[in-house]
Specification:
- With about 375 residues, the protein is mainly α.
- About 50% of the residues lie in helices and about 10% in strands.
- It is elongated, with a radius of gyration of 23 Å.
- InterPro entries: HNH_nuc.
- This is HNH nuclease domain-containing protein.
Length: about 375
């Protein structure tokens, strides 16, 4: 992937762009030009290649097209278009006629940077994001549930400003348990640890947060799961390293301004977290399940679905998430972004490719052709242990 390093030096996804287009007609022409190029290469890549193929591990043109299509706003799409044409060394407003896809030489000139652009997105965003999303630390909760409800949201914010990261994560877990009524937001299983504590205190009089008798058949140990991963904005000496800068810049390309919801300590706010069972946490972290807001329904009502019914037989299911007067609910915007990323990974074959890399990293597997994705593995390992 020799284009990857060069792309890091020339692309500035985060920079606020000047308006790229004079009018909608001009923008439509550029979008058409983008689709013309990508569709040409995507046709030759169908179906999505095997995840174990070292030469075509996933459908790179499909990943590029889907990333554009799932960008959350016109501004985000325009940022992506600018980066795409820059990676191909093309002027974004150049005439369509300057591109001759019937010329094999010109096609090959486009193939390498186009595939390099996709690999850059994988290595600097999708792979590290997927690798860390289900790794939310699970510290023991701070026993602040009783006093939590006596503090206003502003007071809770001030308290968290004075404590360190482990304490913030403990407070986050406690807040989510209170907000979600000590239940998994998908399965509605009650938190086993909380259930044991209530049973030890009240025996047969023990009740859940709604005043109903505890059901011993509907309990599991629950975890807090970040919607976007805790490691995304992890700091080293108070500064983001270059790989995280790249990931955040690409994230901003998906949804311009979304970084302000999770930057710094805001990554550990309740709006970026859900209460889940361990199994649901794993499936959510692998982007195997996703939340879709249902229009014209009560606030925070979602259809929760799995890409593969075999992976998660509990889905699909419809849930209205619990709300709390002083604890933020899960952000609809962040859940929509999580869903978009899941669709891109699934539809392009990149999810299987990334899982194969993570499996290789865990087990030290060498593929049949002798490759080990060494460069990707080393970069990922350094990032995860930074």
């Amino acid at each position: 992937h020799h284009h990857q390093s060069s792309l890091e030096g020339v692309m500035d996804f985060a920079a606020t762009p000047q308006p790229l287009f004079a009018n909608e007609l001009q923008r439509n022409q550029v979008v058409g030009r983008f689709h013309r190029i990508v569709n040409y290469f995507e046709t030759t890549e169908q179906p999505a290649p095997s995840s174990r193929s070292s030469t075509n591990p996933y459908n790179r043109p499909a990943l590029i097209r889907l990333t554009f299509e799932y960008a959350r706003s016109t501004e985000s799409q325009d940022r992506f278009l600018g980066a795409f044409f820059q990676s191909l060394a093309l002027g974004i407003l150049d005439d369509n006629e300057n591109i001759d896809l019937s010329d094999d030489g010109e096609v090959e000139d486009f193939r390498s940077p186009l595939f390099g652009f996709a690999d850059y997105l994988i290595a600097n965003f999708f792979l590290p994001l997927r690798a860390t999303t289900n790794r939310t630390p699970q510290p023991s909760p701070i026993y602040h549930a009783a006093v939590q409800q006596t503090n206003t949201q502003e007071e809770q914010q001030r308290i968290q400003d004075y404590v360190g990261t482990p304490e913030r994560l403990s407070a986050l877990r406690g807040s989510c348990l209170v907000r979600d009524r000590h239940r998994c937001v998908i399965t509605r299983q009650f938190d086993k640890a909380e259930g044991i504590a209530r049973w030890m205190k009240d025996k047969h009089r023990a009740v859940d947060d709604d005043g109903n008798p505890l059901d011993p058949n509907k309990k599991e140990f629950l975890e807090v799961a970040h919607i976007l991963p805790h490691a995304l904005t992890k700091e080293d000496n108070n500064e983001l390293d270059e790989s995280r800068r790249a990931a955040i810049a690409i994230l901003n390309m998906f949804d311009t301004g979304v970084i302000y919801l999770i930057e710094g300590d805001d990554i550990n706010r309740s709006r970026n977290a859900l209460t889940l069972t361990h199994d649901m946490h794993q499936d959510f972290g692998r982007f195997d399940i996703f939340f879709e807001r249902i229009p014209n329904t009560p606030a925070h009502t979602y259809r929760i679905q799995a890409f593969d019914p075999w992976v998660n037989t509990y889905c699909p299911v419809t849930r209205t998430l619990f709300q709390h007067p002083s604890i933020d609910p899960p952000s609809e915007r962040l859940l929509a972004l999580h869903s978009a990323i899941g669709h891109i990974l699934h539809l392009s074959g990149a999810g299987d490719y990334i899982q194969s890399i993570l499996d290789d990293m865990e087990h030290g597997i060498v593929q049949e052709d002798g490759s080990t994705q060494l460069g990707v593995l080393v970069k990922l390992a350094m990032r995860m242990h930074a």
